Amino acid sequence: MNLKTRAEIRKDNQLEEKKQKERDKEREQVEREYQKKLEKEGIVTKSRKSENDKIRNRGRKLDKIILVVTVLLIIVLAIVFIF
Length: 83
Fold this sequence. Notes:
This protein has helices at 6-41, 48-82. The chain has 83 residues and is mainly alpha-helical. The protein starts with 5 loop residues before the first helix and ends with a helix. Residues 1-31 are annotated as: Disordered. Pfam families: MacP_activator (PF26336). Keywords: Membrane, Transmembrane, Transmembrane helix.
């Protein structure tokens, strides 16, 4: 029987996790390079980052609009109840 100690099992698990992280890192790099290649060729024109930036900017604009409308509503209500 080939019994391993806890330390050996832990060491094997750590090595396996390290290999998995390296594979993931390499896969992500290849995916980024492929995405850039497609964008340069004109096949893919939008990346996820640009879409996220657009959504974030739209959210900021809506926040500002909601703030302005709320302030105007408070002013109108103050005028109505004071006079």
